[in-house]
């Protein structure tokens, strides 16, 4: 099962702006924002590029976890220590 966790878009200054699912806590999003993406991929996250055919300079990603949200919570707690 693949669960949508959040989306991320880069603003004009290159800062990543996240929009999380309502079931994801702020603490979990803090861990996701502050952890290297390669480490997140190792514990089951998938990042899919988002593009716009009308605006080629728009960059973003959809962030998925390969499993249920309770499994994601356990995985994030394990790397937060």
Structural notes for this entry:
With 81 residues, the chain is of the alpha+beta class. Helices cover 33% and strands 31% of the residues. Strands 2-1-4-3 form a 4-stranded antiparallel sheet. Strand 1 (3-10) and strand 2 form a beta hairpin. The longest helix has 12 residues, at 69-80. The model has no long low-confidence stretch (mean pLDDT 91).
Write the layout of secondary structure elements.
Layout: E1 3-10, E2 16-20, H1 26-34, H2 37-42, E3 45-50, E4 60-65, H3 69-80
Antiparallel strand pairs: 1-2, 1-4, 3-4
Q: What share of residues are in beta strands? A: 25-35%
* Spatial order of strands in the largest sheet: 2-1-4-3
Q: In this structure, how is the largest beta sheet organized?
A: 4 strands, antiparallel
Roughly how many Å apart are the termini? Answer: 26 Å
Counting DSSP H or I runs of 4 or more residues, the number of helices is 3
Structural class: alpha+beta
Rg over C-alpha atoms, rounded to the nearest angstrom? 13 Å
Order of helices and strands: EEHHEEH
Number of strands: 4
What is the average per-residue confidence, as pLDDT, rounded to a whole number?
Answer: 91
Helix content: 25-40%
> In terms of per-residue confidence, which ranges show pLDDT below 50 for 5 or more consecutive residues?
none
Overall morphology = globular
